[in-house]
Amino acid sequence: MKRLLFILILFFICAIINAQSFTVSGKITDKTTGQPVSDIHISVFGKKTGAISDKNGNYKINLENAPATLLFTHINYHDFQKTIKEKKDLNLNLSLEKRTYMSDTVVITKNRIYDMIEKKPLYVWDYDFYGDSILLLACKYRKINQPLLVLMTNSGDTVTTYEVSKPERIFRDCLDNLHLVTKKYAYQIFYDSSNLQLLYQMETSDFDSLFPRCLEATINKFYFKEYYLRNQVLIYFSMNKEDGKHEKIRVIGDEAGLERLAFNNRFWAMGPSPNESDLRFEQMCFFDPIFAPLVKLGDSLIILNYVDGKMEFLTENGDIINEIPISFHKNKNWKEEIFVDEIAGKVYSLFKQNGITSVMEINLKTGELGKEIKIPDFVHIENIKIRNNILFFLYIEKNGLEYKKLYKMYIN
Fold it and tell me: What is the pLDDT of residues 76-130, one digit of tens each?
């Protein structure tokens, strides 16, 4: 059933791509230096496809209808929006202005923790980054009937707010667009320099069947994953953006888990069939999904293959070009979670001991860990993200009101 759903999703994306009928293309450069800019994401409002500029700054995107609004985004450049009014091939060259990531006006102390919403009575459910701003999903005074999207600066100043109904989470897709997911519908979030907008309503069930399956995107391909054999085999797929062709690029299996599964099947064959509660107990105790996440960092695709104890560096087509052994995951305090700092070009691993969290940078050349960065005095923190050498997290402040607040800590 999973395999069928995956194929239907790919067919759906392919159908969108193949229905396109005219092309917008061009070159993207840095406004100051004139140098080409790679990895600019070009997305089409209301569509589930997009493009990425190559190492020479060139891009090409196919469109089905006009008018169509294109959004050009990059973590290091200001967003640019362009509406294509006529249904004809167009050459569109752009010069984008680089973002300046400003530090707070206060004196910055490494590893000091700052309360991002110290003077705001907000209970934060979720958050993510919108350009060089921060987007919160929160509610006033913890009143569940007053949920808000709050866009604020990196210093904690509110830019704008937007009331929402029955929200559940913020989701970032593989083209770096942010979406608000509610109980019934999902929307793409857009800020037009003055107001937040919720665009392109989609039923949440349809959204969840499509968007989370796309993990990463490169210039020519999308990347997906599927689990098999009670989560003991993980297969990565790529899909070509032009023709929708998909292929396996990596198969990772847990030999010990597969042996347990084979023994388990023999055991049940000799006795009564397992009931649903038996299977749930087995799954919880013996068949956790194997952990081998795929990340994109700059031009590199990396699989942190904890199953086989190595980092695998892949080409866009999935060919392994380098392998580096790792062993830090054998530490009993290691947790199955990683954090990617796209701006600084760093990857971190997570450790927890007695409720205290720490992160350590993974050296991508040696596989060794850097210095331990502890988050002291905050027990059981949530939703860690690292951006531009700043670590963010949520923490419930138990001072009678129990606000869940956003904090940040400079780590470099």
Answer: 788 888 888 888 899 999 999 887 654 444 444 566 888 888 777 889 999 999 8
Nearest Cα to Cα of residue 373 among 151, 113, 155, 150: 113
Helices vs strands, H then E, count in the chain: 4, 32
Q: Which long-range contacts (CB under 8 A, 24 or more apart) does 330-336 make?
A: 336/291, 336/306
Q: How far apart (Å, rounded) are the C-alpha atoms in residues 327 and 353?
A: 18
Instruction: Report all structural domains of the chain as residue ranges with CATH numbers, in order of start.
Output: 2-96 (2.60.40.1120)
How far is 171 from 176, CA to CA, in rounded Å?
9
The Cα–Cα gap between 124 and 252 comes to: 37
Helices (H), 67-129: none
Integer Cα distance of 64 and 232 in angstroms: 41
pTM for the model stands at: 0.76
At a CB cut-off of 8 Å and minimum separation 6, what does 376 contact?
Answer: 356
**Helix 276-286, helix 255-269: angle, nearest 10:** 160
Count of alpha carbons within 13 angstroms of residue 217, beta-carbon side: 24
For the record, the structure tokens of 274 come out as 């397992």
Give me the residues of the chain with pLDDT under 70, please.
1-20, 46-49, 100-111, 141-145, 255-287, 399-401
The answer to whether residues 61 and 84 touch, using CB atoms and an 8 Å cutoff, is no
Amino acid at residue number 95 = S
Helices (H), ranges, 170-307: 204-210, 255-269, 276-286
Tell me: cis bond preceding 67? Omega within 30 of 0 counts.
Answer: yes
What pLDDT does residue 391 have? 95
Q: Which pLDDT score is estimated for 403?
A: 81
